[in-house]
């Protein structure tokens, strides 16, 4: 079967969705006849041995959305949209879509009314037209069924994978810092809450010389986060790294005292799984898929809207545990085989 993967959302591989696409297409390429469509600046990021890379006909995100409505996709047996924000409003082909989350519908105040109306009134209806839907967590599956009235049999939960050759334990000296690996996005990623929690931690532990490392590229609202950090009495201990390489992220996981993930909402949460795979102590928000993953891995959970509780969890001294059985679920080869099963089901529907 000839599959068209619409990958115009790579964004340099710096987002969770971008990484999802880049890591999925490598094993998927060995299982199907794959054509990955992307913008010119992202083509070199795509690693294929058998498949084809095609330059997108559109030159911008806006025209890409419009353009998808004008395409017939007749050259493909099936089209996979790895991000539902690029789906055409009128589908004329067998279509599989990955829905990572429906945050803009669930939290209109956090994501803006424009995104809310676009998702709620347009894409919500479009999802009902597609052949099959892939989601990375049971949380997102339940959201789709509850909020968008999608039938359960149309949705397949397929956990994303991690590269355990890269994200793996290695004995390194732990250092006094907390790390949060996430793009600087306000308010959804809750950096302000974490900064307040860090201040409380330092206030309650005056002997501490811990730092807070915020590792991620600037995104919407980054300037709000940086202004808040600049006003902190511990501003010299709050460090912004900008976008960091995979190698540096692994080093941060292996040497941190704790990886804190206070996001208000996630469809999956790659950093949580990757940090655990590196043997880090991890504490997470008790919201959405983070709660799902946190409970499975027996992690310390906290209310992301309660900085005092976050600070208390940051202070817990416990040994990091490598959770092999839990982590074995997150395998890209396994994920790719399950995606192909969804393709086959979609073509039969």
Overview of the molecule:
The chain has 14 helices and 13 strands. With 349 residues, it is of the alpha/beta class. The chain folds into 2 domains: 2-161 and 331-348, Glycogen Phosphorylase B (Rossmann fold, 3-Layer(aba) Sandwich); 177-327, Glycogen Phosphorylase B (Rossmann fold, 3-Layer(aba) Sandwich), CATH 3.40.50. The protein has a 7-stranded parallel β-sheet. It has a 6-stranded parallel β-sheet with strand order 10-9-8-11-12-13, sandwiched between helices. Strand 12, helix 11 (288-296) and strand 13 form a beta-alpha-beta unit. Helix 1 crosses helix 14 and helix 7 crosses helix 12. 44% of the residues are buried.
In brief:
The protein is an alpha/beta fold and 349 residues long.
**Alpha-carbon Rg, integer:** 20 Å
Number of domains: 2
- CATH fold name of the largest domain: Rossmann fold
Number of helices: 14
Tell me, briefly, the overall form.
globular
Name of the CATH superfamily of the largest domain: Glycogen Phosphorylase B
Identify the quaternary structure here.
single chain
Query: What percent of residues are in strands?
Result: 15-25%
Low-confidence stretches: none
Our measurement of the CA-to-CA distance between the termini, rounded to an integer number of angstroms, reads 15 Å
Largest sheet: 7 strands, parallel
Task: Return the CATH class of the largest domain.
Answer: Alpha Beta
Q: Biggest sheet: strands side by side, in what order?
A: 3-2-1-4-5-6-7
- Report the helical percentage: 25-40%
What is the chain-wise order of helices and strands?
EHEEHEEHHHEHEEHEHEHEHEHEHHH
The CATH architecture term of the largest domain is 3-Layer(aba) Sandwich
Count of extended strands: 13
Structural class: alpha/beta
Mean pLDDT score, rounded?
A: 91
């Amino acid at each position: 079967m000839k599959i068209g993967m619409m990958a115009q959302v790579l964004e340099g591989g710096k987002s969770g969705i971008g990484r999802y696409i880049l890591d999925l297409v490598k094993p998927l390429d060995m299982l199907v006849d794959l054509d990955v469509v992307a913008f010119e600046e992202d083509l070199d990021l795509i690693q294929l041995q058998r498949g084809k890379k095609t330059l997108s006909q559109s030159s911008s995100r806006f025209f890409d959305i419009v353009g998808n409505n004008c395409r017939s996709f007749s050259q493909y047996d099936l089209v996979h949209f790895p991000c539902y924000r690029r789906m055409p409003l009128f589908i004329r082909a067998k279509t599989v879509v990955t829905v990572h989350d429906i945050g803009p519908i669930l939290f209109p105040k956090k994501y803006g009314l424009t995104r809310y109306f676009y998702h709620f009134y347009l894409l919500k209806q479009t999802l009902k037209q597609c052949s099959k839907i892939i989601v990375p967590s049971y949380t997102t599956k339940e959201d789709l069924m509850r909020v968008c009235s999608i039938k359960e049999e149309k949705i397949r939960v397929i956990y994303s994978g991690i590269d355990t050759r890269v994200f793996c334990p290695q004995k390194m000296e732990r250092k006094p810092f907390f790390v949060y690996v996430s793009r600087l996005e306000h308010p959804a990623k809750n950096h302000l809450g974490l900064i307040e929690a860090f201040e409380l931690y330092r206030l309650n532990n005056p002997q501490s010389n811990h730092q807070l490392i915020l590792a991620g590229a600037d995104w919407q609202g980054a300037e709000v986060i940086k202004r808040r950090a600049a006003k902190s009495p511990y501003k010299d201990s709050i460090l912004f790294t900008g976008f960091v390489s995979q190698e540096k992220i692994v080093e941060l996981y292996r040497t941190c005292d704790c990886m804190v993930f206070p996001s208000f909402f996630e469809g999956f949460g790659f950093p949580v799984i990757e940090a655990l795979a590196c043997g880090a102590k991890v504490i997470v928000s008790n919201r959405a898929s983070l709660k799902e993953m946190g409970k499975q891995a027996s992690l310390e959970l906290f209310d992301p809207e309660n900085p005092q509780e976050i600070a208390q969890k940051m202070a817990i001294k416990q040994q990091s545990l490598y959770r092999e059985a839990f982590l074995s679920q997150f395998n890209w080869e396994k994920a790719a085989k399950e995606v192909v099963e969804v393709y086959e089901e979609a073509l039969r529907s």
